[in-house]
Amino acid sequence: MSEKDNSISTPVLTPKDFDSGFDVRWCPGCGDYAILANLKRVLPTLGIPKENFVVVSGIGCSSRFPYYMDTYGMHTIHGRAPTIATGLKCSRPDLSIWVVTGDGDGLSIGGNHLMHAIRRNVDIKILLFNNQIYGLTKGQYSPTTKQSKRTKSSPTGSIDYPVNPISWALGAEATFIARTIFQYPDHMQTVLRRAAEHRGVSFVEIYQNCVIFNDGAYRYATDKEMRYDNIFELEHGKPMKFGRDQEKGIFLHGLTPKVINYKQAGFEESDLLHHDENAQESTLAFFLSRMRYPEFPEPIGIFRAIQKPTYNDMLDQQMEEAKRNVTKPLQEIVNGEENWIVT
Amino acid sequence: MENPQQIKNDDENIVRKPIEELERVVIRLAGDSGDGMQLAGLKFTSSSVILGNDVSTFPDYPAEIRAPQGTLAGVSGFQIHFSSTEIYTPGDQLDALVAMNPAALKVNISDLKPNGILIVNEDSFTSRTLSKAGYSSNPLEDNSLAKYRLIPVKITKLNREAVSSIEGMSSKQVNLTRNFFALGLISWLYDRHLKSTISWIKQKFKNRPMIVKANTKTLKAGYYYGETNELLSIQYSVPKAEMDPGKYRYISGTQALALGLATSSQLAKKELFFGAYPITPASDLLHELVKLRGYGVKTFQAEDEIAAIGSIIGASFGGSIAVTGTSGPGLALMSEALGLAVITELPLLVVNVQRAGPSTGMPTKPEQSDLLQVLFGRNGESPLPILAPQSPGDCFDLAIEALRIALKYMTPVVLISDAFLANNIDPWKIPLLEELKTMEVVHPTTAPMSSDGRYNPYSRNENLVRPYVIPGTKGLEHRVGGLEKERVTGNVSYDPLNHEEMVNIREKKISGIVKDIPLQRVHGPSEGDVLVLSWGSTFGAAHTACKNLRKEGLSVADTNLRYLNPLPANLKDILNSYKYVLIPEMNKGQLHFIIQAQFAIKTQSLTKIQGRPFHVIEIEEEVRQIIGGLFDE
Ligand SMILES: Cc1ncc(C[n+]2csc(CCOP(=O)(O)OP(=O)(O)O)c2C)c(N)n1
Ligand code: SF4
Ligand SMILES: [Mg+2]
Question: What is the value of ipTM here, to two decimals?
Fold first, then answer.
């Protein structure tokens, strides 16, 4: 400790500095480990003093996250992390606040709060660990579980229609939306860094594998053989293509996507749909969010990144304005407009 | 009555009516919600306080936003109790009632004393308005009001005569000034000056000379009507009351609370973060606080009460003074998060403005039925301090006190008020802010570390309070949360003995607050036959009743609990000093339940669950019965 206290300039931080020293209690092989490792790699590179990070979570396996980060942190109650993060950001805009939530925590019990934090554009970073299951309560279906999935609470198959987190976040007008996968460290670090740099709310869906209750939910996206055909990376201004030899491309066919082996068919790259993450209208991003396995390859990367004044900035502006407009001391307000003296 | 000015000039020629002096008077001005009765009531109040009376008032608005005109649901009333002696309630029964239409008469007449003065706007009693109010015959004609001193006045017509000559007045504007005619009349009846109202009108409408002229003219016309009309044979006066010298204003509980919170922010030199979700009757607190943003109050309208308390837990973790305001249903939604604040030991204040329940109940009506919810309405052992203001002005003091406790002891605190206190308007001796004790809040930047070099967020001082370290403090990074903590380190722990110890520590910390709580004081004899133990807004009726009974020579004391958890240290001794303890509450006996359980003392409960405060007489009668029973034995 004393070593750090004596330092004058911001010390160069390493992932180890973010290690809280707690025993990590996730199941061996859980996808959460990879996310923890990647965030620990990204935070030291942001130029933010360690003491200015706060990780806020709800309840779930994923929500144990704050205990494993040597930052300020709060492990709160089920679904409510966005509310606490919102209050904290409004009170302390100087902090870099990260919300860690699960598909149950964020989209079931806490769906309301997540929506409102997003639509207000509070400058917080929201990481939704989507394993399509309730992990902590031992394997019930969640709001993102695929229909017909047999789980502890749906032995003959779930009849719930699942929510599409990206479409949903777009409905709430998120200014930054991205998707990444637990097994792709480089991709995840890029996405997390971009999320951190975005001024406003960042919503990142992270595909995460629960080895115990929903193992293999993302095999199509992580398996060496399968992934080339089932996912593709979004890059701003670039054509959308995928396949082992990048031979397949996405075309806009009316209002639906179409996949064509464009090289075989004799098209040019320039004929393919190009990504524009800065598009003010969310139409393209929404179109992309509807592309789901197995009918389509699933986009990963940044769906949307636009600028809009943040809630906390506007709140502070109003506070400043109110302070500027003060013409009399509080005592005079307390005195009221009408008063009288008793002798 | 065409020219009030002329009558004024003729004043000397008129034989002045006799004036009778009264100790205290209760009046109510009632009309349709569009009739401006609230404003007239407030102005009558102003002129009374300027005369030196003690005053207590109660505005009663309709629950519906735009109730149909002329219906019972649309009636709005303003009750004023003014006195030459100290008073603590807006009064039980009315000495005089002004009813601007049949609906106002119907809703309010049962509160008028026999032989009470009843002034009605005769012009508004038409077959249409009578049937809207549900009258099958005209009560002004069918003798049903015989037991009152009925004074029908053609207010609409007289008002029109007074103002219609003013150039540019539309007929709609003409009718809007009727309340000032009524105010003028009642001001004459009780010998109040018009001066303060006239200067208020001039100030309020300074850019609209026509309105100033109209309101002033009809106000005077009402006054002179009283002076000259033969139905009003006598004028009353209520002399000055003996009051503590000082500067006064009048204030509602909601205003006092908002000012108390803003003052706390200044005393602690810290931003106050108020996150809330609108709910009657607590929304007005948000409205008042938004006006105080220039004084360091940051407001946030959340998406629901769970988010409201979540936001303030976040703000508290960040180091702001954290406050929310709600009513019963909202408090129910906050329960889980309040538990989080208990286990994370973060300071915050929840204001619960109680209303009649269960469920949505009667949103605009007061009740004291959330006491047990506040005490016990959370999972697990989760004690927290509870304070209850006894009067509108007391909301100011206890808001500050509650925050002092929250910040000193790192704990959530609940301030439990009610719809009556929130809207009740009383004179209030204005405090000098510079004389208030500042609030010391320390955020340590260094702290004792454990052997592995980590900060111990659950180390404690002599009061069992953990350090208030906030994010941004270098080297003291730590995590808090809802899982049970290991003592000192704050690490997650499922150790059985550690859990028991932590439950006990949290409980001891809260019960230890007793040393900061003033000893309970009793009005009246320090031992005797009956002690009336009240809490919250029941104070006014209980204290007045006991004062009256003491004047009759009965051995009755009274005391009001402002601290409900922990209870004052000397309470048990006090309770043991009387043969009977009577606890009047606007619920089914919740404090009664607590006192019996905690002290094994037999108490007697007096309950009223009508969405209305106690009347003084109801408590008096109960005490008389108890004392009567004592002598029977
Ligand atoms: C109010 C409340 N209801 C229910 C629970 C039980 N519970 C804890 S976590 C959880 C679901 C977690 O699922 P998810 O958010 O997907 O997280 P995961 O464990 O999958 O990471 C539930 C239902 C709780 N802790 N609190
Ligand atoms: S149950 Fe699933 S999500 Fe939870 S820790 Fe184990 S593998 Fe991870
Ligand atoms: Mg999950």
Answer: 0.96
At A161-198, the pLDDT tens digits run 999 999 999 999 999 999 999 999 999 999 999 999 99
Q: Name the residue of A62, A100, A137 to mutate for ligand 1: max ligand atoms within 8 A of Cβ.
A: A137
B528-632 CATH choice from 3.40.50.300, 3.40.50.2000, 3.30.2290.10, 3.40.50.920:
3.40.50.920
Contact A203, A177 (CB under 8 A): yes
Query: Could you tell me if residue A24 is left (phi over 0), alpha (psi between -120 and 50 degrees) or otherwise beta?
Result: beta
Give CATH 3.40.50.970 domain extents, chain B: 249-435
Class of domain B19-237: alpha beta
State how far the Cα of A195 lies from the Cα of A304, in Å rounded to an integer. 11
Please tell me whether the overall predicted TM-score, pTM, comes out greater than 0.90 for this model: yes
Q: Is the peptide bond before B281 cis (omega within 30 degrees of 0)?
A: yes
What residue ranges of chain B are covered by domains with CATH 3.40.50.920?
A: 528-632
The architecture of the domain spanning B249-435 is: 3-Layer(aba) Sandwich (3.40)
Residues B311, A83: C-beta atoms closer than 8 Å: yes
Give the C-alpha separation, B314 to A85, whole Å.
6
Distance of CA B60 to the CA centre of its chain: 12
Q: What is the mean pLDDT of residues B185-192?
A: 96
The reply to whether residue A92 touches residue B318, judged by beta carbons under 8 angstroms, is yes
The domains of chain A, with CATH numbers, are 3-217+309-324 (3.40.50.970)
> If contacts are CB pairs under 8 Å, which of residues 92-151 in chain B contact chain A?
none
Q: Which residues on chain B are in Cβ contact (under 8 Å) with A116?
A: 302-303, 307
Ligand 1 site residues (CB inside 6 A) read A 59-62, 78, 102-105, 129, 131, 133-137, 142
B71 backbone dihedrals φ, ψ, rounded to 5°: -90, 165
Counting from 1 in the atom list of ligand 2, the atom nearest the Cα of A60 is 4
- The single-letter DSSP state of residue B630 is H
Interface-testing mutation among B42, B51, B317, B430, with chain A (most A C-beta atoms within 10 A): B317
Which pLDDT tens digit goes with each residue over B484-518? 999 999 999 999 999 999 999 999 999 999 999 99
